Amino acid sequence: MSTIQQNLQDVRSRIAAAAQGCARVPEEITLLAVSKTKPVAAIAEAIAAGQRAFGENYVQEGVDKVQHFATQPEGATLDWHFIGPLQSNKSRLVAEHFAWCHTVDRLRIAQRLSDQRPAGMPPLNVLIQINISDEQSKSGIVLAELPALAEAVAALPNVTLRGLMAIPAPEQNYQRQLAVFGQMSDAFQALQQRYPQVDTLSMGMTDDMAAAIAAGSTLVRIGTAIFGARDYSPA
Ligand SMILES: *Cc1c(COP(=O)(O)O)cnc(C)c1O
Fold it and tell me: In 10 A of CB 230, how many CB atoms?
């Protein structure tokens, strides 16, 4: 068995254990394999092991991978999620090549994604990114801004508001992780009351997936535990 195949099995077991620990069923939780900086060979191994949903952070790198796998036999069965910060001048590439965007944090970006979504493709699934704990970070809105942004995004024709996403500040303590994720979960449930199509709460990474699942995450974004540490040094 390859390392990636083994890692995927381990991560799936960890998700199942976390779900069972809080009386949830593992099928409620989507595993998004975060493949940023990793070569297509690593993604191909994950695909061979049954993985179908992949997350990419950098627009051009992501588009290159989407296009590579579009020509492969499994291409049509893959779900590509854009999970990185998005600048306006790159929105078209996301609208044209991805199924999901997790990082909508202003109306202007959502409008561009909707305008630029090609006719003939289903609406782009979008999540609103919440800046839940990290005041230093410029990504994401504060919760007080959510009702107005959600209403405006939900009204756009070619995107579907599916839920919320957060990247909390790194925190080793499980109880403190749980407290932050709990705030996200409350906001998510309130959003679901208002918008019936909302079904996705994207939170949890390699180091905090158990707490995220306990708090109600429906999608965990896992990179390191599947593909190993990332190397950002110049080639
Ligand atoms: C890189 C990244 C991940 C994966 O993080 P790991 O700790 O490697 O699992 C998840 N979400 C986002 C938004 C990321 O940028």
Answer: 12
Q: How far apart are CA 220 and CA 212, in angstroms?
A: 8
Inside any domain, residue 9? yes
The atom of ligand 1 lying closest to the CA of 36 is 1
Does 232 fall in a domain? no
Span from the CA of 230 to the centroid of ligand 1 (angstroms): 10
Structure confidence by residue, pLDDT tens digits, 32-65? 999 999 999 999 999 999 999 999 999 999 999 9
Domain of 81, in residue numbers: 3-227
The closest-lying atom of ligand 1 relative to the alpha carbon of residue 206 is 9
191 located within any domain: yes
The structure's pTM equals: 0.97
Amino acid at residue number 81: H
Give the number of domains in the chain: 1
- Domain CATH number, residue 71: 3.20.20.10
For residue 234, being part of any structural domain is answered with: no
The span from the CA of 98 to the CA of 75, in Å, is 13
d(CA 163, CA 200): 5
| Ligand 1 neighbour 168 (Cβ under 6 A) | no
CA-nearest of 235, 234, 210 to 222 is: 210
pLDDT, one tens digit per residue, over 106-116 is 999 999 999 99
